[in-house]
Amino acid sequence: MDIPFDVTGKILETERFILRPFEATDLNDFYAYASVPGVGEGAGWKAHDSIEASWGILKGFIEKRANFALYHKEDKKVIGSVGLHGSWTSRNESYKHLKAKEIGYMVAKDYWGRGLATEAVKFIVEYGFNTLGLDAFGIAHFAENVQSRRVAEKCGFTYIETGVYFAKQLNKHFDDIRHIKIKES
């Protein structure tokens, strides 16, 4: 069961990040990582080919208020995002009774392999369970997206099923690997 979530006014902190709502002033940082080939394709969208394309997406993030900007404390810039969205769990008979959100995450390619996505996801899971009162989180990723699979594993998510996802921007179907993490009693 999906519950509403809004990042407005929320500023959270991990060891290496400040998680906060996206702002218009994040445009250059957002474009810098979203324009790199290989970053967006793992989530079903093309690398941004212009700052105007990035502005269109960033504006949507700001308006929908479901994504935190991952502001890297040391480098003093936004290097990714983590969002809470409607989850595949709401459509699955075994899990649709749970208060759940899906976690979507992305980190700039230059920062891959440093455990940053894992840090952000672990933090959001604890925040969701302890502050938002969620029962579960879902993660879904394309079968080819090994980095996202590793984040799910490191964060204690359990594989549930494989579905199919059609990425409109890429005009391609992907095997959609779905994981869940249920709050322990």
Quick take:
This protein is an alpha+beta fold.
Spell out the key features of this protein.
4 helices; globular; alpha+beta; Aminopeptidase; 185 residues; 8-stranded mixed beta sheet; single chain
Q: State the helicity in percent bands.
A: 10-25%
- CA-atom Rg in angstroms: 16 Å
How does the overall form come out from the CA principal axes? globular
Order of helices and strands: EEHHEEEHEHEE
Task: Give the beta-strand count.
Answer: 8
- Class computed from helices, strands and strand pairing: alpha+beta
Distance between the termini: 18 Å
Q: Supply the CATH class of the domain at 12-137.
A: Alpha Beta
Q: What is the architecture of the domain at 12-137 at the second tier of CATH?
A: 3-Layer(aba) Sandwich
Question: Sheet bearing the most strands, described?
Answer: 8 strands, mixed
Task: Characterise this structure.
It is a single chain. The protein has 185 residues and is an alpha+beta fold. It has helices at residues 27-34, 51-64, 116-130, 146-154; strands at residues 12-13, 17-21, 67-72, 77-85, 100-107, 136-142, 158-167, 172-182. It has an 8-stranded mixed β-sheet with strand order 1-2-3-4-5-6-8-7, sandwiched between helices. The two termini are 18 Å apart.
SSE layout and pairing:
Blueprint (H helix, E strand, L loop, with lengths): L11 E2 L3 E5 L5 H8 L16 H14 L2 E6 L4 E9 L14 E8 L8 H15 L5 E7 L3 H9 L3 E10 L4 E11 L3
Parallel strand pairs: 5-6
Antiparallel strand pairs: 1-2, 2-3, 3-4, 4-5, 6-8, 7-8
